[in-house]
Design brief:
The structure holds two protein chains of two kinds. Chain A is mainly alpha-helical. Chain A has helices at 7-24, 29-43, 45-56, 88-118, 126-145, 149-170, 175-204, 224-227, 231-246, 255-261, 264-289, 291-317, 322-342, 346-376, 389-392, 394-408, 415-431, 435-464, 480-497, 500-518, and strands at residues 63-64, 69-71, 77-79, 82-83, 210-213, 216-219. In chain A, the strands form three sheets. Chain A has a two-stranded antiparallel ribbon with strand order 1-4. In chain A, strands 2-3 form a two-stranded antiparallel sheet. Chain A has a two-stranded antiparallel ribbon with strand order 5-6. In chain B, the strands form two sheets. Chain B has a three-stranded mixed beta sheet. Chain B has a two-stranded antiparallel sheet with strand order 4-5. Chain B starts with a strand and ends with a helix. The chains are: A mainly alpha, B mainly alpha.
C-alpha cells in the first residue's frame, strides 16, 4: 500500500536533522542529550510502521513511500523507499537496536569523551557523535528500504563513511590505523559490489530490483536470460563484495579489529546490524537475479557457511578480550545466516532473516553488557581479569545470559525460531536425500550448534561465574544505561511469543520472488 | 475412549501457571523486591495450581476415559501449522500428575532448605521455570511446544546446577585433587552447569533434526498426526534404508537427556546444585523428559513400522535393539560405580542413571516385539516403563531430600563423615528405610513391582545377554543401597569431624520426604489399584493397541531373584554393621585396588570422552587460531609489504623519466587494443 504521507523519508531525514542540530549545539551538552533522546524515539518509528503493517493484514503487499526519485531517463531506474515482508525483520532489528543504543550511548560516550580529554587527545564533542551516529543509523535503514542498486549503494557508502569516522574519532587502541583498515577492506568489498552493479546496470538498462506494481513493490525476477554470459562474473562480483561486508571466512580479516576497537555503541551497531545487511542483500537481489546460478553454487555456499560457523566459533573460544570474542562470535553467526540462505529454500531464507533479528538483539545485548564494564570498571575488557561479575552485576549477567540464549537458540528468545527454521531449510534441501547426507549434516549441525553453545556458556562462566580474578570495585546501579539493554532484551522475548506475523509475511515475500524463480 | 476438545487455557494452565509464576518473580526482581517469603509463596503456589489441574485431568482421563485436546483455535505460527495447547492422553496425564506433585513437595522442601541463601530469588525463579518447562514438555500437543519445554528444562538445569556459581569448594562434586588418566575428576558448580547443557545439547540437535524432518515427511508437527501418519513416513524412510539412523537421531535427545551411556557423565556431576535441585532433576524433571519421550514415541514407532512394511519392521527392530543395548550398558556400569562411591549424592546419581536405563530398557524390550506384531508385549513394556518411572520418581525424590538434610547436618558430601543418624532422627531413618527398600526392589514396595515388570519384559524378548546384565545390576543395586543406609544411619562415622548438633529435620523438610517414603510403600501395598490406574492410562495412550497387564507373574525366577536380593542386602548390611574393613582388602590386593580405582573413576569414561572430544576440539581450536593469525598476517603484513616493495621497485626503475613512461603507456595501450580486438 502506498502511504499517504512520506513517513519513510521522514524516518530517514528527521534523525539527520536532529543530528545536524546536535552538531550545531555541540557546546550545550544538555541540549545534545535531549536531542539524542529525541532521535532515539524517532528511530523507533520504523518499528511502529512495521507493526502497523503487520496489523493491517496486507502482508502480501508492501508499504511504499509516496515520494520517489525517477531516474528512468538516465537508465538508472527509480528510487523507492519501501518495506515488505523480507525487509521487515531487518527494519525491526535496526530500529530496536539503533534506538536503544542511542539512549545507551549517552552515558557511554560522555564517559569516553571525558576519558579521551584526560589523555589530552583531541576529540570531537558529543554533538558530532550524535550527528554521525544518526547518519549511521538511518543509512542502515535506507539500505533496508531501498529498491534500486544505486540507491542501495549510496546508503551503503553512507554507513561506511559515518562508521569510519566514528571509529577514527572515538575508537580504542590504534584507532587511526584500525579505522583506515576497516575503511579500506570493506571498501574493497563495496567496490567489487559496485563493479558488479554497474556492469549489471549497463547490460540491463536499469538498476531496479523492485518496481512499483499495483501500489506494492514487486521484485523484478531473474535477469539471467538478459545477462547471458556475463551472469557468472556479475554474480561472483556481487557475492564476493557482499561476503567481504558480511565477513565470511577468508574475507573476515577486518571485522575483529573494527568491532573490537570501535566505541561500544558503534560496535553494537556494526556487529548486530551492519554486517547482516549483506546477507539481506544476498537474499534481496543476488538470489533474485541469478537463481539458477545460485542453485549450481549451492554446495560451495553451504560449505562456506559451515566453515564460517565452525571457524568463527573455534577462534572465538580462544579470545581473551570480551569485545574481540564477540566479534568472532559475529563471524560465526554470519555463517548461520549464510547457511540459511545457502539452502535456497523458503524455510532456510526465512530462518536467515530471523537470524538477522535474533543476532541483532542478542549481539546488541552482549556488546552493551561489555560496554557496562568498560564504562563502570575502568575499561575492563580482558576476560582473564573478569570472573565472578554476576554477583556484583546481577542484572547485566542475566541480560548477557539472555543475549547468549538468542545466539544459541534457547527459548524463550527469538533465537529459537531462527534455529528451527534454518535447520528446516537444511532438511528440506539436502538432509533427507540419503543416509549419508542425513548422518553427515546431522553431525555437522551437532558440531556447529554445540560449538555455539560451548563458547556462549564457557564465556558466560569466565566472565560472570567463579571467583573474580582481579580486584573489582563497583556495583550495579540501575539507570537508563542498563535499562536500555533491558529494552532490547524485552523485544527478544516479545518476538519469541509473537513470531507469526514475521514468519508469515516473510513467507509470502520469499515465496513470491525467490522460490518461484527457482521453480519450487 | 472419547476425545474431548476444550479451550486451550482450560488445561494449559498446567504448564502456564508455573511460567506465569516465574514471570511474576522476574518482574518482582526487576522492581527490586527481595523478600524471600514472596518468592517462596508465589513459586510454591504456582506449582500447586498445576498439581491440582493435573489431578483433575488425571481423573478425567482415567475415570471418565477422556482424551483431552485443548488447543487454540488459531495458529500460533501459521507457516508451521502449530497451535498452542495441551494434549492429555493416559501417558500425558500420568506424567503431569507425577511431575507436578513431586515438584510441589520439592518446592515446599526448598523453602526451608534455601532459607537465607544469597541466591534464593534466582533459585525460585528457575524452579518455577523448570517445572513449567517440564510440564509443557509432557503435555505438549506438538513438537515445537515440546521442544520449547525441552530446551527450557535444559536451560533451567544449567542455571540450577550452577546455582552456587561462585564455586566454593564445599559445593564441588568429586574428591578435590583426584585425577583419572591425568584429568581432574572434581567439578565446580559452574563447570557442571556447562557440562549439563553441552552434553544434552548434542542430543538436542538430533531431536531438532528429527522433528523438523518429520514436518516434511509427515507434514505436521502435531504429535497425534505424526502418530497417525507413522506408517507413511516410516515406510518412506525405510525404503531409503534410513529408518534406523533416523530413529536414533530422533531419539538422540532423549538418550542424552536421560543420561544413557555415553551421555551419563553430565548427570553425575550435576550434584553441584542445591540438593532439592538434584531431587527435582532426578525424580521429576529433566532426566524423566528423555524417558517420557521414549515412552511417547516407542509405541508410535511400533505401530508405524507394522503399518509400513517389513523393511520398516526390521529397521525398527534394529533400532530398538541398539537402544536396549545402550540402556543395559548404562544399567550395568552405573550400578557398579555406585557400590564404590563415597559421596552420598553421587551414589544416588549413579543409581538414577541406572534406573533410567531400566526404564528405557523396558520400553525397548517391548519394541523388539515389532517383528512378531505383538501389540500386547509393547503395551506391557510401556506399562513396565511407566511403573518404573513412577516408583523411581517417588523413592528417588525421597532419598535426595533425605540426602539434602544429611549433607546439611554434617556439612559434608562424603559419607565417611556421616554415621549413626538413626540415634538422632527417627522419622528420617524410617523414611530412608522405606525409600531404600523400595529402591532395592524388595516386596511389597512399589519398586519391587516395577522392577519385576521390567525384568519380566526383558526376559520375554529372549535376549539372554541383556537379561543377565539387567539381573546382575539388581544385586549391585541392593548392595549399594544397603551400604548407604547402614553406613549413614546405623554405624559410627569412619572419620570424625567437627562437632555437630544432629537432630530431626524441621517439619517443612521432614514432611515432604516422609510423605514420599510412605507413598513408596503404600503404592506397593495397593499395587492392585496403582497398577490398575497405570493400565487404564497406558491403554489410553497414543499408539497403544492392547490393554497391558500390571500383575506380576510370580514364577521361579521372581522368587529366586527376590530371595537373592534380600540375602544380598542382609549380608552387606551385616558386614557394614560389623565394620568389616573393605579398604584393608584393597590394600592387600593390587587387582582389587585397581578395580576399585577403575570403578571409582567411573570406568575412565569421563577422561576418555575428554580426550576424544574436548581435546580434539581444543586442538582444532588451536589450529584455527594459527590459521587465523596466518590470514591476519597475509592481509595485514604480506599484502601491504608487497605493495610497499612493488612501489619502491617501480619508483627506483622509472625515477620520473618521461621516455620510460611513454614507452609503458604505448605498451599498455596496445595490450588493451589487442584484448578489445580479439576478445570481443
Amino acid at each position: 500500500m502506498l502511504l499517504s504521507f512520506p513517513a519513510l523519508w521522514l524516518t530517514i531525514l528527521l534523525p539527520i536533522l536532529l543530528g545536524v542540530l546536535a552538531w550545531l549545539l555541540g557546546k550545550y551538552e544538555s541540549a545534545v542529550k535531549a536531542l539524542i533522546y529525541l532521535s532515539g524515539f524517532v528511530l523507533l518509528v520504523p518499528l511502529a510502521l512495521v507493526l502497523s503493517y503487520y496489523a493491517s493484514g496486507e502482508i502480501s503487499k508492501s508499504i511504499v513511500d509516496p515520494i520517489y526519485i525517477n531516474l528512468v531517463s538516465y537508465r538508472i531506474g527509480t528510487f523507492y523507499l519501501g518495506i515488505d515482508g523480507l525487509s521487515a525483520p531487518i527494519v525491526i532489528g535496526i530500529s530496536i537496536v539503533t534506538a536503544f543504543v542511542s539512549f545507551y550511548g549517552i552515558k557511554y560516550m560522555t564517559k569516553r569523551i571525558e576519558e579521551m580529554k584526560e589523555e589530552n587527545e583531541k576529540v570531537p564533542n558529543l554533538g558530532v557523535y550524535a550527528f554521525l551516529y544518526n547518519i549511521f543509523a538511518v543509512t542502515m535503514l535506507g539500505i533496508a528500504y531501498s529498491s534500486n542498486l544505486i540507491e542501495f549503494y549510496i546508503f551503503l557508502e553512507g554507513t561506511l563513511i559515518s562508521s569510519f569516522l566514528l571509529i577514527a574519532y572515538y575508537g580504542y587502541g590504534d584507532r587511526k590505523k584500525i579505522s583506515l583498515l576497516y575503511f579500506v577492506w570493506t571498501h574493497i568489498g563495496a567496490v567489487l559490489l559496485l563493479t558488479g552493479i554497474l556492469y549489471f546496470g549497463y547490460l540491463v538498462g536499469s538498476f531496479n530490483y523492485m518496481t512499483l506494481l499495483n501500489g506494492s513493490l514487486t521484485p523484478i525476477g531473474s535477469e539471467e536470460a538478459i545477462l547471458g554470459g556475463a551472469t557468472t562474473i556479475i554474480a561472483l562480483l556481487m557475492l564476493i563484495g557482499l561476503f567481504v561486508k558480511m565477513a565470511v571466512f577468508g574475507v573476515h580479516m577486518w571485522l575483529p579489529y573494527a568491532h573490537a576497537e570501535a566505541p561500544t555503541p558503534i560496535s553494537a551497531l556494526l556487529s548486530p546490524n551492519l554486517i547482516g545487511l549483506a546477507g539481506y542483500a544476498i537474499a534481496r537481489f543476488v538470489f533474485q537475479f541469478f537463481p539458477t546460478t545460485m542453485l549450481t553454487w549451492r554446495p560451495y555456499l553451504l560449505t562456506l557457511a559451515f566453515v564460517t560457523i565452525i571457524y568463527g566459533g573455534l577462534v572465538a573460544l580462544r579470545q581473551k578480550d570480551f569485545k574481540r570474542f564477540l566479534a568472532y562470535s559475529s563471524i560465526s553467526q554470519m555463517g548461520y545466516m549464510l547457511l540459511g540462505l545457502a539452502t535456497l529454500t523458503s524455510y532456510g531464507i526465512i530462518g536467515a532473516m530471523l537470524i538477522y533479528l535474533s543476532h541483532a538483539i542478542g549481539k546488541a545485548i552482549l556488546f552493551m553488557s561489555a560496554g557496562v564494564f568498560i564504562t563502570e570498571l575502568k575499561n575492563l575488557r580482558d576476560i582473564t581479569k573478569m570472573g565472578g561479575l554476576a554477583k556484583k552485576y546481577p542484572l547485566t549477567a542475566a541480560l548477557a545470559l539472555f543475549g547468549f540464549m538468542n545466539l544459541t537458540g534457547l527459548p524463550p528468545s527469538v533465537g529459537m525460531w531462527s534455529e528451527i527454521l534454518v535447520v528446516m531449510g537444511l532438511v528440506q534441501s539436502y538432509m533427507l536425500r540419503n543416509l549419508a547426507s542425513l548422518i553427515g549434516f546431522t553431525a555437522l549441525l551437532i558440531v556447529s550448534l554445540t560449538l555455539t553453545g560451548a563458547y556462549s556458556f564457557i564465556m558466560m562462566r569466565r566472565i560472570f561465574y567463579g571467583h573474580s580474578r582481579s580486584k573489582i570495585e563497583g556495583s550495579e546501579k540501575i539507570d537508563v544505561f542498563k535499562l536500555s539493554i533491558l529494552g532490547v532484551a524485552i523485544f527478544g522475548f516479545v518476538f519469541f511469543l509473537v513470531i507469526n506475523p514475521l514468519i508469515s509475511s516473510l513467507n509470502t515475500s520469499v515465496i513470491t520472488f525467490i522460490i518461484s524463480s527457482l521453480g519450487r | 475412549m472419547i476425545t474431548v476438545y476444550s479451550n486451550w487455557f482450560e488445561w494449559s494452565s498446567i504448564w502456564l501457571s508455573p511460567f506465569i509464576g516465574a514471570g511474576i518473580l522476574a518482574l518482582l526482581w526487576l522492581f527490586n523486591v527481595r523478600n524471600e517469603k514472596v518468592y517462596n509463596i508465589i513459586s510454591v503456589l504456582s506449582i500447586f495450581i498445576s498439581s491440582i489441574v493435573s489431578s483433575v485431568a488425571l481423573y478425567d482421563v482415567l475415570i471418565k476415559h477422556e482424551i483431552i485436546v485443548a488447543e487454540t483455535s488459531t495458529y500460533w505460527v501459521s507457516l508451521l501449522k502449530i497451535k498452542v495447547g495441551t494434549y492429555l492422553d493416559g501417558l500425558g496425564a500420568i506424567m503431569s500428575t507425577i511431575v507436578s506433585w513431586l515438584s510441589f513437595l520439592i518446592a515446599v522442601y526448598s523453602v526451608e532448605y534455601m532459607k537465607k541463601d544469597w541466591g534464593v530469588q534466582r533459585y525460585f525463579f528457575f524452579i518455577s521455570f523448570f517445572v513449567g518447562s517440564m510440564l509443557l514438555l509432557v503435555t505438549a500437543s506438538n513438537m515445537i511446544l515440546m521442544f520449547i519445554g525441552w530446551e527450557g528444562t535444559g536451560l533451567a538445569s544449567y542455571a540450577l546446577i550452577g546455582h552456587w556459581y561462585t564455586d566454593e569448594e564445599e559445593y564441588w562434586v568429586g574428591v578435590p585433587g583426584r585425577k583419572a588418566l591425568g584429568l581432574p575428576m572434581y567439578f565446580e558448580p559452574s563447570t557442571s552447569g556447562i557440562r549439563a547443557i553441552l552434553f544434552t545439547r548434542v542430543g538436542d540437535v538430533g531431536f531438532l533434526v528429527g522433528f523438523t524432518s518429520l514436518f516434511f515427511i509427515a507434514n505436521s508437527f502435531s504429535i497425534p498426526t505424526i502418530a497417525s501418519t507413522a506408517g507413511t513416513w516410516m515406510g518412506l524412510l525405510a525404503s531409503k534404508g534410513m529408518l534406523t539412523a533416523f530413529l536414533l537421531i530422533f531419539t538422540l535427545g532423549a538418550l542424552a537427556k536421560s543420561a544413557q551411556f555415553p551421555f551419563h557423565e553430565w548427570l553425575v556431576t550435576a550434584m553441584t546444585g542445591p540438593t532439592p535441585v538434584s531431587a527435582l532433576i532426578h525424580a521429576a524433571t529433566m532426566v524423566k523428559a528423555g524417558v517420557y519421550y521414549i515412552l511417547r514415541f516407542a509405541p508410535i514407532f511400533f505401530i508405524g513400522a507394522i503399518a509400513a512394511s517389513s523393511l520398516a519392521v526390521s529397521q525398527t527392530q534394529e533400532y530398538f535393539y541398539i537402544v536396549a543395548g545402550l540402556a543395559v550398558t548404562t544399567v550395568f556400569i552405573m550400578a557398579t560405580m555406585a557400590i564404590v562411591s563415597n559421596e552420598f549424592k553421587l551414589i544416588l546419581a549413579y543409581s538414577t542413571a541406572e534406573y533410567l536405563g531400566y526404564m528405557i530398557l523396558a520400553v525397548a524390550a517391548g519394541g523388539l516385539f515389532v517383528v512378531t506384531h505383538n501389540y500386547t508385549a509393547m503395551a506391557d513394556a510401556e506399562l513396565a516403563g511407566i511403573a518404573m518411572l513412577l516408583a523411581h520418581a517417588i523413592f528417588k525424590a525421597a532419598l535426595f531430600l533425605i540426602a539434602g538434610y544429611a549433607l546439611h547436618a554434617t556439612d559434608s558430601r562424603f559419607i565417611d563423615y556421616m554415621g549413626n543418624f538413626s540415634k538422632y532422627m527417627k522419622v528420617t531413618t524410617i523414611s530412608m528405610w522405606l525409600a531404600g527398600l523400595s529402591l532395592a526392589a524388595i516386596p511389597p514396595f512399589s519398586g519391587f513391582f516395577a522392577k519385576e515388570l521390567v525384568l519380566e519384559n526383558v526376559a520375554k524378548t529372549g535376549y539372554l545377554g541383556i537379561y543377565i546384565f539387567a539381573v546382575l545390576a539388581v544385586f549391585f543395586t541392593a548392595a549399594y543401597i544397603s551400604r548407604l543406609i547402614i553406613r549413614v544411619f546405623h554405624s559410627p562415622p569412619y572419620q570424625e569431624s567437627k562437632e555437630h548438633h544432629l537432630h530431626e529435620a524441621p517439619i517443612l523438610m521432614l514432611a515432604p520426604y516422609t510423605i514420599l517414603a510412605l507413598a513408596a510403600l503404600v503404592l506397593g501395598i495397593l499395587w492392585f489399584y496403582t497398577g490398575k490406574g497405570l493400565e487404564i492410562g497406558i491403554f489410553e495412550t497414543l499408539g497403544i493397541q492392547a490393554s497391558p497387564a500390571f500383575n506380576v507373574v510370580v514364577d521361579a525366577s521372581t522368587i529366586i531373584i527376590t530371595t537373592l536380593i534380600v540375602i544380598d542386602f542382609a549380608i552387606i548390611a551385616y558386614l557394614y554393621i560389623r565394620r568389616y574393613n573393605f579398604m584393608a582388602m584393597l590394600d592387600r590386593s593390587s587387582v582389587l585396588k585397581s578395580l576399585h580405582t577403575f570403578l571409582y573413576d567411573r570406568w575412565f569414561i569421563n577422561s576418555a570422552l575428554y580426550y576424544l572430544f574436548l581435546y580434539s576440539f581444543m586442538g582444532l581450536s588451536w589450529l584455527m587460531g594459527v590459521i587465523n593469525t596466518a590470514i591476519d598476517l597475509f592481509y595485514h603484513y604480506v599484502i601491504p609489504k608487497a605493495g610497499e616493495l612493488a612501489s619502491k621497485g617501480l619508483r627506483a626503475f622509472f625515477r620520473g623519466r618521461t621516455d620510460y613512461l611513454i614507452a609503458l603507456y604505448i605498451i599498455m595501450a596496445s595490450i588493451v587494443i589487442l584484448i578489445v580486438f580479439f576478445g570481443w
